[in-house]
Structure formats: structure tokens, C-alpha cells
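step 3/5: co-fold with heme C
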Amino acid sequence: MSLTKITKKQALALSCLFVIPTISAKPLQPTQQLLQDKFIAGKYSTKGADSCLMCHAKSDTVMALFAGAHGNTASSDGPMAQLHCESCHGPQGKHKGKNEPMIAFGADGNVSAELQNTVCLSCHQDNERLAWHDSVHVDADVSCVSCHQVHAANDTILARNQQNAVCSRCHTEQRAAMHKRSSHPLENNAMVCGDCHTPHGSLSEAALKQPSVNDSCFECHAEMRGPFLWEHEAVVDDCSNCHNPHGSVNDNLLTRKAPQLCQNCHQPDGHQFNVEPTDGNVFTTGQSCLNCHNQIHGSNHPSGNYLRK
Ligand code: HEC
Ligand code: HEC
Ligand code: HEC
Ligand code: HEC
Ligand code: HEC
Ligand code: HEC
Ligand code: HEC
Ligand code: HEC
Ligand code: HEC
Ligand code: HEC
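step 4/5: write C-alpha cells
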């Protein structure tokens, strides 16, 4: 393999690489400091990947890189067209094993999550990752490689039927919810977290793809959008006032059952004395409040006031 010259764009991106932590308040770990010095010295190998593979070729993990996108030697903007292995692991310098570290990734990596991400962003700073820096994942030190695998033929999370499993490794609350009695079809991967969320962050609350909770729901439940002649303010405000999108022990993803659900906001005794009670207690049996207020999401019926038809 021959080593192509470093491109201008790459040089610029890489030059930012280890500059960020020097202006950050956090003190640098000794290894990170060492890697920074090594980066500035910029002693790249002369034979690219070959310099590394003379020692690392026996590792199946390392070699799996060549079955994936980053090992593609035909790509004109991938690592193999640039600094090969060192596009990600930094300059070799004197590294021949334990004598001197290389940038290592993952939860046990030897540089901060922020720096690991900077390596990836040197090539992937594009529209898809515009909101990355404002994302809660960044604040929580989640790195690109918490979700992605590079030394692999197939990056697991990119397979739709694996996404929920990868996200659920950390999001145990949502994992528990999706197995509850009522849930979106997440358990069988017919729906994925990414149908509502953007993994790389968004400017909306809870990293939603759409600008609001309701807009997220309308993508698939358009019939709930309205406008209705008789609106229910609670619905117009936020579907999650009553529903947990990830799952619930109650029917219809409801956070609580009626009448408690309704009594979160409405007086418990309310208008009891104004309505005609039928058999039993019409407020607690059957559909409870929905015995009468059965158009809870809004009504277009001329006489559908109070959400009754
Ligand atoms: C002379 C042999 C040799 C060469 C050449 C070599 N390495 Fe290594 N490298 C090793 C050994 C041995 C280790 C394991 C050290 C240890 O156990 O901590 C290692 C460790 C690493 C690690 C750290 C793995 C981890 O999880 O901490 C990375 C990354 C790495 N090498 C990348 C490279 C790259 C990239 C190149 C080429 C620029 C390269 N190596 C060249 C022998 C070599
Ligand atoms: C696109 C960035 C990227 C490129 C290019 C890359 N690596 Fe890696 N490397 C990683 C990441 C990320 C990991 C952590 C494991 C993972 O996510 O797949 C890693 C892990 C490693 C490890 C530790 C593996 C282990 O067994 O734990 C070694 C050694 C290594 N890389 C060597 C290399 C060599 C040699 C090359 C060139 C042939 C190379 N890498 C190219 C990003 C890269
Ligand atoms: C030297 C530039 C470069 C670096 C550094 C780099 N990538 Fe990439 N990456 C690419 C290119 C080029 C592609 C292929 C794009 C395409 O095929 O459309 C790619 C593809 C991907 C894909 C899609 C893979 C697929 O199978 O379709 C993911 C995910 C990804 N990169 C994540 C990462 C992560 C995580 C890192 C940091 C560990 C990283 N990249 C570092 C250039 C880079
Ligand atoms: C929380 C998990 C998660 C994190 C963290 C994450 N990704 Fe992704 N990434 C995904 C998922 C899921 C997909 C596939 C769905 C999609 O395209 O949005 C994806 C797709 C991609 C792709 C291929 C499609 C595209 O969007 O261009 C690239 C490249 C990529 N990610 C790069 C990165 C980089 C770089 C980082 C770090 C700055 C990163 N990702 C962090 C989950 C994650
Ligand atoms: C049907 C759309 C939808 C799907 C699918 C979905 N979410 Fe959500 N998620 C939301 C909405 C809406 C919110 C914000 C309102 C709320 O907290 O209920 C949210 C909030 C969150 C939060 C923040 C919770 C908090 O308390 O701040 C996390 C974490 C989360 N989702 C993770 C996931 C994961 C992981 C998956 C996949 C297993 C997933 N979501 C699937 C719609 C969805
Ligand atoms: C390595 C662990 C990890 C993985 C994997 C992971 N997350 Fe997270 N995520 C976190 C942490 C930590 C937070 C911040 C604390 C919290 O809200 O739990 C977070 C926060 C979130 C939030 C709340 C965002 C906000 O603005 O309030 C959403 C939504 C979310 N993650 C979705 C996802 C999705 C979707 C995936 C898979 C594509 C995923 N996460 C994968 C660790 C992870
Ligand atoms: C990507 C499409 C999609 C999005 C976005 C979506 N849903 Fe759904 N929703 C579905 C599907 C599919 C079903 C299952 C229909 C079935 O099984 O008959 C469903 C079912 C439901 C149910 C009935 C559950 C049950 O137990 O019968 C409720 C309630 C619901 N969704 C509320 C919401 C809310 C609230 C949002 C916004 C946070 C939302 N949905 C966003 C696709 C979606
Ligand atoms: C005031 C509480 C409340 C709010 C807010 C609310 N819902 Fe519901 N939702 C219910 C109740 C109660 C049921 C079960 C009885 C029924 O179907 O009318 C239900 C059922 C559903 C169902 C499944 C049954 C069907 O009719 O398809 C979907 C889908 C749904 N809601 C979507 C939404 C969406 C989307 C929003 C936001 C625009 C929303 N809900 C806001 C209380 C609420
Ligand atoms: C998150 C708070 C909230 C929840 C939960 C809620 N509501 Fe409401 N509801 C409101 C608000 C706000 C209004 C409008 C102001 C008012 O009349 O009090 C309203 C109005 C109403 C109206 C009068 C509509 C009209 O046409 O004037 C009825 C009937 C009603 N709600 C029934 C219910 C029922 C039944 C439930 C339970 C399934 C419920 N609400 C749950 C907040 C809520
Ligand atoms: C037997 C039928 C019936 C049941 C059951 C019922 N309602 Fe009503 N509700 C009515 C009628 C009829 C009205 C119209 C105004 C009136 O007569 O007071 C009304 C009006 C309302 C209003 C708007 C006027 C006001 O008093 O603020 C709210 C809010 C309301 N109901 C909430 C509830 C809640 C919460 C429950 C369950 C605890 C419930 N309703 C159960 C029939 C019923």
C-alpha cells in the first residue's frame, strides 16, 4: 500500500484534534498528554498500514477493518486514501508495542470520549452530525464508538434489527418499558428508537427527530393532528401528558388508568352531581370518565362538546 499525501482538509481537521483539551478546564491525563505531544511531533510511518500490519495482522479484530467501510481501498475520502491506520490512531512515532501508546478507543480508551469523537468528526462533520455538540450524549461522555464498531465487516447498530438492542444496552428503563403489556412494536424491531429519536442529537427536546413530541406522533398517527372543532387542551399540549411512548403496564401506553389519569389535572369530584349516573358508579366502572368523554383526543361532531361524541 502506498501512503497518499495528507489532504488540506484532513490537515486542518487534525490540527484541531489535540488543541481542544488545552483550552478545556479538565487537567490532561499523563497518557493523553503524551499522545498530544506525539501528535504535534507528527511522526507518521512511511509505509502506512503496512508498518502496522507487520505486527497487527494476526489479530482478526484488526483485519476485520478491511471488510468494512473504513478499510475500503477504493474510497477516495476514507482512511485508506489518507493516513491509513494513523488517520484514527494518530502518528506511530516510536510505537512498537508497550513502549509507546497509540490512541485507543472505547470505554477503556486512553483519551477522553471528546477526543475520540474528534478523530471521527475530522471526517464526519457533516449535516447528519450538525447537532452532535449539543446532544445529551456528548455531555454524558458517550462516544461515537459507544454505538459504532469500526473494525467489523458490519457495524451492528446500522442493521435496523439490531438498533434497539444497542440502544438498550445503556437505556435499561426504555428496555424494560418496551417489554410491558402495551408498547410500540419495538420488541420485534418493527419500530426502532431512531423512528422518533436522532442518535446524533437534534435541537428538539429528548433528541427527537421532529420539532416536538406531538409532531413525532403525527408522523404515524396523523388522524390525531386535528384541528378539531372541540379540542382537548391536554392533547394539543403534549401527547406524553397521558402516554408513555416506550411502553406501559396500562392499555394504550397510558401513564395511568382513568379516572386517576384524568384527575391528575381535573378535580376528583368534578361535575359528579350534574351527570346522570347509570348502573354502578359510572366514574369508576368500565371506561370510567371515557364512558362519556369517549372522544378524548378531540371531536369534530357538531354536538361533540365536552368530548362526548
Ligand atoms: C513492532 C510491532 C508493532 C508495530 C509495528 C505496531 N504495533 Fe501497535 N501494538 C503492538 C503491541 C505488541 C501492542 C500491545 C501492547 C499492549 O499489550 O499494551 C500494540 C498495541 C496497539 C494499540 C493499542 C490497543 C489497545 O487496546 O490499547 C493500537 C491502537 C495499535 N497498537 C495500533 C498500531 C498502529 C496503528 C500501528 C502502525 C502505525 C502499530 N500499532 C504498529 C505492536 C506493534
Ligand atoms: C476509522 C478509524 C480507524 C481506523 C482507520 C483504524 N482503526 Fe483501529 N480501532 C479503531 C477503533 C474505534 C477501535 C476500537 C474497537 C472498535 O470500535 O472496532 C480500534 C481498535 C484497534 C486495536 C485494538 C484492537 C483490539 O483487539 O482490541 C488495534 C490494535 C487497532 N485498532 C489497530 C489498527 C490498525 C493496525 C489499523 C490499520 C490497518 C487500524 N487500527 C485502523 C479505529 C480505527
Ligand atoms: C479519514 C476519514 C475518516 C475517519 C477518520 C473516520 N471515518 Fe467513518 N467513514 C469514512 C468514509 C469515507 C466512509 C464511507 C462513506 C460512504 O461510504 O458513504 C465512512 C463510513 C462510516 C460509517 C458508515 C459505515 C457503513 O458501513 O456504512 C460509520 C458508522 C462511520 N464511518 C463511523 C466512524 C467512526 C465512529 C469513526 C471514528 C472512530 C470514523 N468513522 C472515522 C471516513 C472516515
Ligand atoms: C447513540 C448511538 C450513536 C452514537 C453515539 C453515534 N451514532 Fe452514528 N449512527 C447511529 C445510528 C443508530 C445510525 C443509523 C441510523 C441513522 O442513519 O441515523 C448511525 C449512522 C451513522 C453513520 C452513517 C449514516 C450517516 O448518518 O451518515 C455515520 C457516518 C455515523 N453514524 C457516524 C457517527 C459519528 C462520527 C459519531 C460520533 C460523533 C456517531 N455516529 C455517534 C448511532 C449512533
Ligand atoms: C414512538 C416514538 C418513540 C420511540 C420509538 C422511542 N422513543 Fe424515546 N422518547 C420519545 C418521546 C416523545 C420522548 C420525550 C417524552 C417522554 O419522555 O416521554 C422520549 C424520551 C426518551 C428519553 C429521555 C427520557 C427522559 O426521561 O428524559 C430516552 C433516554 C429515550 N427516549 C430513549 C429511547 C430508546 C432507547 C428507544 C428505543 C428502545 C426509544 N427512546 C424509542 C419517543 C420515542
Ligand atoms: C453507551 C451508553 C449509551 C448508548 C449505547 C446509548 N445511549 Fe442514549 N444516553 C446515554 C446517557 C448516559 C444519556 C444521558 C442520561 C440519560 O438521559 O439517561 C443518554 C441520553 C439519551 C436520550 C435523552 C436525550 C435528551 O436530550 O434528553 C435519548 C433520547 C437517548 N439517549 C437515545 C438513545 C438512542 C436512540 C440510542 C441508540 C441509537 C442510545 N441512546 C444509545 C447513554 C447511551
Ligand atoms: C413510526 C411510526 C410511529 C410513531 C412515530 C408513533 N407511533 Fe404510536 N403506533 C405505531 C404503531 C405501528 C402502533 C401499533 C399499531 C397496532 O399494533 O395496531 C402504534 C400504537 C400506538 C398506541 C396504541 C398502543 C396499544 O397498546 O394499542 C398509542 C397509544 C400510540 N401508538 C401513541 C403514540 C404516541 C403518543 C406517539 C408519539 C410520542 C406515537 N405513538 C408515535 C406507530 C407509531
Ligand atoms: C388526556 C389524555 C390523553 C392525551 C393527552 C392523549 N391521549 Fe391518546 N389516548 C388516551 C386514552 C384514554 C386512550 C384510550 C381510549 C381511546 O382510544 O380513546 C388513548 C388512545 C390512543 C391511541 C390508540 C387508540 C386509537 O384511537 O388509535 C393512540 C394512537 C393515541 N391515543 C395517540 C395519541 C396522540 C398522537 C396524542 C397526542 C396528539 C395523544 N394520544 C394524546 C388519552 C390521551
Ligand atoms: C395534563 C392535564 C390533563 C389531563 C391528564 C386531562 N385533561 Fe382534560 N383538560 C385539560 C385542560 C387544560 C382542559 C381545558 C381547560 C379546562 O376545561 O379545564 C381540559 C378539558 C377537558 C374537558 C372539557 C372539554 C371542553 O370541550 O370544554 C373534558 C371533558 C376533559 N378535559 C376530560 C378529560 C378526561 C376524561 C381525561 C382523562 C382521560 C382528561 N381530561 C385528562 C387538561 C387535562
Ligand atoms: C355519565 C357521563 C359522564 C362521566 C362518567 C364523566 N363525565 Fe365529565 N361531563 C359529562 C357531561 C354531560 C358534561 C357536560 C357538563 C356538565 O353537565 O357538567 C361533562 C363535563 C366535564 C368537564 C368540563 C366541565 C367541568 O365541569 O369542568 C370535565 C373537565 C369533565 N367532564 C371531566 C370528567 C372526568 C375527569 C371524569 C371522570 C372522573 C368525567 N368527566 C366523567 C359527563 C360525564
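step 5/5: annotate
Residues 8-147 form one domain.
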